[in-house]
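2024-03-11 09:14:02 DEBUG pipeline.ingest accepted 1 chain
2024-03-11 09:14:02 DEBUG pipeline.ingest length=156
2024-03-11 09:14:03 DEBUG pipeline.predict start
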Amino acid sequence: MRIKQLTEKMQFSTTATWKKDKEGSFLTTNYPELVPFSCPPELGGIGTPSPEDLFLSAIATCTLTTLLHICDSLRTAPNTLEVSVSGDLRLIKASNYEFENIKCRLEVTGDEFLLERACEKVPQLCVVSNSIKPLISYQIIINSQHRLTLTNQKSS
């Protein structure tokens, strides 16, 4: 299946509502059902994704869909694809937290040459990665072999 061409401008919106003591839900433009969320478990969360989980999930899903889009343009498709993202949330001062040490592990199998070409482009083309302040380190595994280590920061 061919992925549609990118448009010059796309608009997204999300509405979040806090329902009760430790739980909220959000609704997005492209998904018609309410999605529950809560604060992190360390702060009394109730077993639903926290905003911090959703933040890392946005990086993972954007990385995955960006790679699929690039592969599509190269007329190839991975046999398998898995993206894992982790990060540390650190207290800076008072109640100011920042993410650091964000690591994205992209594991893919298929045509080694084309997948390496596609994976090289992901950190610079992933919209979410390029819209955030923290550095993201990408570990690229192709056909069970570590091939590349990249970041979302542009070279000078």
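2024-03-11 09:14:41 DEBUG pipeline.report Helices lie at 51-73, 112-125.
2024-03-11 09:14:41 DEBUG pipeline.predict end
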